[in-house]
Amino acid sequence: MTLPVAARSIVSRGLATSAVALAGLAAVYVLALGFTPVEARQGLAQKIFYLHVPAAWSALLAFSLVGIASALYLWLLDPRLDRFAAASAEVGVAFSAVMLTTGPIWAKPIWGTWWTWDARLTLTLFLFFLFVGYLALRAAVQDPAERARFSAVVGILGMLLVPFVHLSVYLFRTLHPTPVVLKPSAPSLPPEMLRTLLISTLVFTVLYIGLVTVRYGIALAEEAREAPDAA
Amino acid sequence: MPPDNGGYMIAAYVVTAVILVGYALAMWRRARRAVGSD
Question: Which terminus of chain A has a lower count of CB atoms within 10 Å, N or C?
C-alpha cells in the first residue's frame, strides 16, 4: 500500500517545525536564565513565568481552535476540520500539563501553598479534564462520523470555557495575578522581561504549530491505512 | 535582597523540558510508525 504523499510531507514539515521550536526553547532557557534580570520581590521563582504564561497561551489557543474547527465541522462536515480539532486538542492537553505543573511550582514559594481552589485555577483544571475527556471520547467511539460529531460538540463546549478562564481574574476574587500583556492598557513589565516573555510565547506558538502538523499527518496516514479495511 | 527560591525555578524548567521534549519524541516515534513502515 502507498501512503498519500501528502501525509508523509505533512509529517516531515511538522517534525522540522517542531525541531526548530525545540531549539528555540533551548534558546529561551538561556535567555530567561542568563540574560533576564531577577525580579526583586519574587526572586528566581518569577522566571517560571516565562514558561507558565506561554504554555497557558498555547493551551488556550489550542482549545479555542478546537472549538472553531469543531463548529465548522458540524457545518461543513469536512473531515480535515475534525482531524485538525483532534490534533489541536491533544497538543493543547500537553501544554495544559505544563501550565498546571509550573503554576503550583511557582505558587508554593510565592503564595505559600501549591494549590488553592479559586476560580482561575479550578476553571483551568476543569478545562484540562474536559479535553482529556474529549480525547477519551474519541478513543472510545469507533464510527468515524459519530466520533467526529460527538467530539465536535464537546470541543465547542470546551471553547466556550476559554473566555471564562481568561476573564476569571476580573470576574471573581482570586489569588492569581491579572494579565500583564493581554489587557486593555500597555504591558506592565520592564522591557527585558517583556522581550523574554514575547520570544518565549512565539517559540511555544511555533511548537504548537509543529506538533499539531505532525499529529495531523499521523491521523491522515492512519486513516489511509484503515480505509481499505473499512471498504 | 531577593528571596532564595531558585530550586523551584529549576524544578519548573526541568518539568517543562521533560513534558515538551518527551511529547515531541513520542510524536516522532508515532510518526515513524504511521508513515515509516510503508
Answer: C
Q: With respect to residue B22, please indicate whether it lies within any of the assigned structural domains.
A: yes
Where are chain A's structural domains?
A: 3-176+188-230
Domain that holds residue B20: 1-30
Is A59 within 8 Å of A99 (Cβ atoms)?
Answer: yes
Of A22, A43, A51, the CB nearest to B4: A43
Secondary structure of residue A176 in the 3-state scheme: coil
**pTM (predicted TM-score):** 0.94
Report the residue of chain A nearest B12, measured CA to CA: A102
* In contact, A220 and A6? CB cutoff 8 Å: yes
Is residue A26 within a helix (H) or strand (E), and if so which, with residue range?
Answer: helix A5-34
Query: Given CB atoms, is B11 within the 8 Å cutoff of chain A?
Result: yes
- A225 to chain B, closest Cα gap in Å: 9
In chain A, which stretches have pLDDT less than 50? 1, 230-231
pLDDT tens for A21-47 read 999 999 999 999 999 999 999 999 999
ipTM for the predicted complex = 0.94
- To the nearest whole Å, the CA of B20 is away from the closest chain A CA by 7
B36 domain residue, yes or no = no
